[in-house]
Each structure stands twice: as structure tokens, then as C-alpha cells.
Amino acid sequence: MYSFPDKTFSPALVNSEGTLVAAMCRGAAGKKWGYIEIITQTSADGGISWSEAKTVLQPPARAISRDAENTKSAFFLNPVLASAPNGDIVMLVTFFPESKGAADSKYLEKKKTAFTYFDGERHPIIYDRDGSYYIIMNDGAVIDKTKAKTAFTVDAAGELYKDDEYMGNIYLNGAQGKSETEGKTTFGSLLKTPKRSYIFMLKSSDKGNSWSNPVNITPNLDNENDGPLLMTASGSGITTSDGRIIMPLYSPKGAVAVYSDDNGDTWNRNPRMPYTGGKGDTTFVQTPDKLIHGFNCGRNAVSDDNGILWSKGGKLPSSIADSKKSAVLADVNIFAAAKTKKGGVLATADLFSDKKGNYKEFKWRKELIPIEAENFDSPCIVKIKNNVLGVAYEVKEKAVFRLITIE
Length: 407
Hints:
five-stranded mixed beta sheet, 407 residues
């Protein structure tokens, strides 16, 4: 077993042409809020050894502390990875401005509009202390509510400038102040974004060695019915046989599938995924008949139109059916890693087609392969080679990786 750094959780894992890439959260304090960054590590030998951790995303913060009640920081949650058809690795991740995020909804601004249409596109909105709003354009320029250009600009990290003067960060609370000399903390700006979740996208074109700047893709993904919470489900997405990337998200109203047909440059979503149990992590697999299956909370939704509409499918075996933290992989067989009352286990289903040639009903084996006796959570599976699987998961306050050989 390989252990990733301390205070890591929600690992995501992808096999990029033989190189394993793992992404995970690393927190300074509480697991669901506080200063939480995203780090990555890679392995070129099938998970036997791993590179040093690299920090990919750092949130803006007014204070960095191990105090579990520290809310003076923005934070990232739940990285999700997929390999694009062009060889890029695509990551989606949830970002929260300074708050407690989904852990305490009273911090979120449920009625404040976060986006508006301008020239046929949705753009983020920021507000001043009097409630007047401003619109952020694609190039970072800021216009006011009369559509007049201002002297303000906002960069990808949320740093606000007035001409060349630094004005603070739009994702932080509080009045203007002073930054630390080391540049680790900063202060709130005159203009602020609504406190809610945002979905960021970034890419790596060199198998996880370097990453692009994050792009806020929330305007293309949320709708009025989601409310202030639309979040990535930790783990991995899928790239279908025709090159569509499908990633799992969820809101309090249920699971959502979001997809890209151009290697992650632009994104769309389905309205909602029924038949999946709703709020747990969803894992997608594609069977040889090109049906896509979404597993969530022991249930299975099936799509025959590449992830747009979903019908009711089969179920996970009863031994792991209640788990809200499961990962599923389709290869020659179906493999499901899940958190159960007996710890973390791996279940296997043989892929037999029904009379119509569809793989809706999997033949689950009764035998379960033990992975971790206690404190197993947030699994993610990849195939390494032949009958060898790699499973990343968290144990207590640390993400780990284990190789499992299937007999």
C-alpha cells in the first residue's frame, strides 16, 4: 500500500496511456472547509512508486489555520479526472468562496444571482457593498450594470485590479486590508462574488506534470433549480467510445451528468439523472453494447443516447447496495469498490448479455474481495494491466493507493 501525504482526502485517479495520475484534496483544518488545496502525484510504473506531490490549485485565504472552525479561506473539493480523446487529462473540481460551503448552508447566498446573460453568453456577476452588480467578461474585463467598461479586471484566481492597483480577492469576505509578505494570504475586495459553489475546469497535456489555469465553467452547467449548491462527485469520469467525456455532479435535488464533445473545452449537462439514488457519488461505465451505466447509492441508471436521457437499470449486489461511496469500473468484468459495514470491499460482476444483446443485468459474484478493514471511504478504480487493478481511497485523514490482483 502506498500512502499519499497527510490530511489528504477525496482522491481521483486516471490511467493516462500507462501513467497513473492521482489528484486529491489536502486540507489544513476541517475536512469539508478551511484551507483546502488540490495536489497531484504521478506514477510511471503502475503504482509501485509515485512522484513528489505538486500543488495544482491554491485557494485565496485571509487566514490559514489548523483550527477546524477557521472559515477565513476559500477552498476546493472533490477533484474528478478523465482522459480526453486528444490525450489531455481533464479535471473538474468544486470551489467555494470563503464560507463553510455545503457543511453549513447558512453561509451561502441562496437568493443572490451569480450569472447573467450578455451578448448571448452567461457571465459571472460580482457585487459592491451597496448591492450594485458588475459583469465579468471572458477576458477578465469588468463592465457595470449599464454595460459600460470599468477600470476593474479580474484574473483566473479571482484577484481584482483597478488599472494596475491590486484591490483584493473577490472570493473573500472582509474589508480591504494587507497581504502577508510571503503572499500566502490576502484580503477581500471591493467587489465580491456570491457565496455558492462553482465548478472549475483545468487540463494537463503532459500526463499530470503541469496544469492549465482553472476556468469557471459553472455558467454552462448550473440552472435555477440547482440552488447555490452544484458539486462534483469525487472520483473519475468516463470517456465514451465516441469521444464524449462525461463527469458526475450532484445538487441537493439529485445526480447530474455533464459532458464535453471537444476534449473539455466546452460543457453541457443533462437536466437530471433519475433512478440513481441521488446525492451520493456517481460512477459511469460503458459496456460493449455502448450503453452507459451510472451507479449511485446501489442503484443503476442506463443511457442509450450517450448520457442525455436515463432509464432504470439493474442494481449493485445487496452486500454493497447501501453504500453512498462506491466506484465502478467496466473492463472484461464489472468491478465495484464500496464502503460497507465490514469495511472496504471489491465486488465483481461477469458481463453476460441478455437475450437482446444488452448488458443491463450483471451477474454479480457472491465472493467479495476485502480492501480495507476499517475507515474506508471515497474509492476510485483504474485498470493497471490484465488482471491488476489500482484502487485509491481514504483511510482516516490520508489518501492511499493499493494494487489488487483479480484471480
